[in-house]
Amino acid sequence: MPNAIASIALLVWPLVTLALFVRLSPERALLASLIGGYLLLPPMPAEFDLPLLPSLNKSTIPSLSVLAAAVMLGRLRVMQLVPRHPLMLIALAVYLLSPLMTVLGNDDALRYGPRLVPGLRLAEVPGLVIVQFLLVVPLLMARVFLGRGEDHRLLLWAILLGGLAYTLPILIEVRLSPQLNIWTYGYFQHSFSQMIRGDGFRPIVFLYHGLWVAFYVAMAVLAATGLARAARGREAVALWGAAAGLGVVLVLCKSLAALLYTMVLAPVLALAPRRLQLFGAAAMALLALGYPLLKGADLVPQEQILAFAESIHPDRAQSVGFRFDNEDMLLERVWERPVFGWGIWGRNQIYDAESGRELSVTDGRWLVVIGIFGWAGFLAEFGLLAGPVLLLWWRGRDAALDAASVTLAVILGMNLVDMLPNATLTPLTFLAAGALLGRVEALSVRNRRALAPAHPPIRTVL
To answer: Which controlled-vocabulary keywords does the entry list (predicted)?
Structure first.
């Protein structure tokens, strides 16, 4: 069970956030609070569970804190949070309102032998909507505060510095086994057996799973690579060194997927033209959006992917095959209530009709969302995340985009692809999407001004 330090850390974080907004610029305070909270606060099950309200935990407290601090100090007006782009505004509206439709369509209880899965009640709607809103707050605030090219560079630096700060804790856990969360907060947040790889350990530090740690390090490597390519002199040398050092740390994290992403994308960021990088980011975003359709139409090359996994290790092939089988089963379940899904309390899962035993495992974020909130919820959430990358590619074809914006788009594209096998939706995902959306809206305003007809000179009569 979480100890008193875990509770104190969660309680104190709003005060830390307020102090950051008092002392720093809104951009720096936003990044310090959200990224710092993600890396340092205790993960679930540390929480404050209030009746009829969403859980206050590592995910929701930083979002609520930055919003409250910015509004209280006059740094933000609530109406500034509303996106100007019509497609993104529609996606946001569906994202926030789809829980209501999900609840209305799932008031029936489900029975599987001795197991009874309850129906949803209207009283649960406010909590679900608040959770959705708090999840998307980083996107909405990043759109306001991080929409410029220099802000994107600041975000990349924040990711990089977070990765460097995490290096020592990672190395400690690689050497001694994952113990830091136990030593600090009094509990282990996941299955310890999943942190064992070969004759060593996956570090987990204060995140939900070792895969999350590896993925964050991969983001830091790409951030360092993008910054290094644009830098000059000693700064460039230091950044290339940071990228190389973090690459070694990534290998020690023992995550094949994160390592493969980095091996492919780091050379792209180091060598390829920006327009090609942006095209690659858009392709990854489009893949994430279209994967359920490809999966349903049997267009995913599963046999080739399994053969590749088998060439690496039989255990990898078994893991990938297990995921594919679960995706097939759960997609069939989705099509029974396709528009707004099955709702919470495990209603989207598959159970044995006689024993009530749960038969399915939901890994990918896309599968979680489409099962709970249906196609409406999936298109809304992934539209909010993938939309800025696609819009930036579309708007940026005729604009001079700086390296930081393109690097951020590539990192977000990688995150979207990783949400197919894993549930690596983090505050950084929303931060990156919001920052890119702010840039897209700025480009739209600039394009409209450039296309506006010049006013004719005023005629004077003497």
So the answer is: Membrane, Transmembrane, Transmembrane helix
